[in-house]
Design a protein that fits this description.
This protein is of the alpha+beta class. Helix content is 23%, strand content 23%. Helix 1 runs antiparallel to helix 2. The longest helix has 33 residues.
Length: 342
Amino acid sequence: MMRSTGHPRARRAQLQAARVTLERYRTLLTQDSIARQDVDTQGALVKQLEGTVITDKASEATAKLNLDYTRVTAPVTGRIGLRTVDPGNYVAAGATTGIAVITQMNPIDIQFTLPQDRIPEIQARMASKAKLEVTALDRNRTATLDTGVFSTLDNVVDVTTGTVKAKARFANDKLALFPSQFVNVKLLLRTIDGAVVVPVTALRTSGTGNYVYVINEDRTVSQRAVKRGDSTVESVVITEGLKDGERVVTEGGDRLKDGSRVQLPTDVPAAGGRAGGRRQGASAPRGAASAPGAMPATEPAARGTATPEGAPTNPGVEKPVPTAEQRQRMGERRREGGGPSQ
């Protein structure tokens, strides 16, 4: 009977040899050349060695696991924050502070809110398997940080704000998006072709509805009722009341009324003309129904310096006015028959 040694490799070799011996014993047993007791004893030895080898494998796996505990590896890829443990400090299992915080940077999700009135349209687009483009802008809405895809909607509406939470996923390859960063989000729900669009500052509201001030060819304005459609932060669609290419007032509308005359930023004094003369500037491009910066004509385009009627146009050098002491001396000299003092 074989005895196992302490080395795992030796025990595996003993198991292999015991299995070979067991096969030989079984062959001899079929030839009635060996006692069955010897065969059973050899089979028990094989099973004993198999259990020993399994125990060795478990011990080896435990040793590898303990070795892995000596190295701290990140469970996810991302950006590591400021460390809370310095070299030389003790680290205990189950510590609440941890060593550092790792935040996944790409891909990254942006959570934002949508008006509850848009939920049916968004759900219809999602049901049609359409990929809704989402653009992340900076705080001032001037720079585009990244472009992503709409992910999902929340399952409840916030009754205090009338909005529902949504998420969009961004690749963030350039790392322009930062965790917990404030951004503005623009969701492209659908595209309207051939729409007449004006800045939101051009649209005004009264008791009778929405209207705009349209600039005529003679620089007068006409108040015109319009119907608005979809809108964004910067612009609004005009569905009725305005034609393509017409110009509207975008600034100073509070000081206007129907028939008022306005001046445009492109109006400059005509060369050789009187103050207040105007030269027509460049017209608005086709398709942009707006004239940014149109102002009420409350003052002339050019300013001059007013002079009294009959005053010389080139008076020359003005002589200084004499003081009280000089006037007294001049009077004394006249009484004495002398000339004026200089």
